[in-house]
Structures
1.
Amino acid sequence: MSLRQFAVAAILALGPLANAKNLQSPATDPIPGTDTVHGCYKSLGTLKHQQTIQFNSQGACAGLCRDNGSLVAASNTEECYCGDQYPNKSDLVDDSECTEPCPGFGSQACGGLDTYTVYNTGKKVSVGEAPASSSSTSTPSKTSSSVSDAPASTSDITETVTASTEPETGSGTNVAGIAAGVVVGVVAITAFGGAVFFWLRRKRNAEIEEEHRRNAAVNAFIGGGKPPSSSGGVSMTDSRLDPVMNRRMSDGSIADNQDYSRRILRVTNA
């Protein structure tokens, strides 16, 4: 066989690999220490996005997950996912659904339109599968973030506005009630404080008046005068003036050298 014939035969042999429908390799039994294709799935199960690999391939994605200690890997174009469970077998689809060539090795399939090529990383031969999902298609976490940014429908917006209006009204009522309670409390405290102040002032005035009355009574007692009356008045009569001496003084003249303000005991010979 000539070299030209060999090249033609090689091209014909590799022809099916160039067909997008035949890119996905059939599933094989797991082999410890090396990655193997497990199948084409329409969901990721419990697998999580690990990394975006520019030149992604079976070896690149499965090797990355194996180095991270993961048992299972999956790829879709440049995206690589890792985990410890296969997707549920109910999400297994025909190999012809994985038609996207790997960016780093075009003769291998890296998923397809909403499909994923799943690998066993070689860490373990026996690997479990994720429970069946409620929906037929599982969307990866990276894609779900963009879906959540989509605008809501008119009915959703109406429900949101209606629901958010009621708490605002309730909160306004609560604020008004709290403010009214604070004002009433301040007024009550001020009134109580004023009442206490006037009571203490009246009590102090009464104590001062009583102390003054006691002092006046003591002064009157010491000076020999009459005690002050109940009305608080003080007698202005000079206690040194004696009534008897007053009568004597009225009967005759008063000597300039005599002190008639008090009695004088005189002794004479009989």
Note: Residues 50 and 81 are 5 Å apart (CA to CA).
2.
Amino acid sequence: MEQNISETAIRCLRRLEEYDFAGVRAMCTDGATVWQNDGKAEQAIDERLEQFKSFVTTLDSLRYDVIRQFQNPNEVLQQQVLHLAMADGSRSELHAAVYFRFDGGLIDRIEEYVYTVPAGTPG
């Protein structure tokens, strides 16, 4: 049965929600890279996951909502919102357009264009 890469992209987000970083890593190629519009250089997936591990220590929970998704062979583009509940009780949302490139059914590249919207503000 052929793998549905759109579903794989969503499974990746669900594993992040569960803090299953080993599960996310297993979904990626050895040389997978991540780029985000934060002004920093492209990163290896392992480096990015380490940063995410540190980030989640400040959270009570996180949840991804995928608003829409488009698929081409070996590519998924989606609009999503990351809902964050911080340990201090505050909440925020990160709106993003995320591109996933696949190689052999595994995630090989992620590009994320993010902007923050305070909770309760129309996106």
Note: The radius of gyration is 14 Å.
3.
Amino acid sequence: MELAVESQAIHPLAPEHIPGYVAGADGSDVLFTAMAIFGIVLIIGLGVLYLTLHSIPERMAHKSSHPQLQIVGILALLALFTHNNLFWVAAVLVAGFQFPDMLSPLQSIARSLAKLAGRPINENVPEGDAPQPAFRHHDGEG
């Protein structure tokens, strides 16, 4: 009986209190398990943050129905795969600013000049899609 009591006693050189993070004799390691879970959550969280930051230009362009949405998407993908921040900055700039419409005023001027010159204007063709000849031969009539 006395031998059984002796086997349950701790070694005389062992401290009285062992911290909980020290690996147990049964092989369980609480600190390693906690750090492994923390590391996995941290890596996934950083990946989500990185991909969220890279999608900012595309979300900006999509929200404002930007006409250059595809260009913004291509620049964001180039920035993602090449790790070149210049592409990402360019995507943010393109998504953030609307380029002015230079074609509509020129088409309006052309239609007005065509009316003044007495040329027929094809109203069935949407604005900007009417084919214009490079030059018009004037045969002296009209």
Note: The radius of gyration is 37 Å.
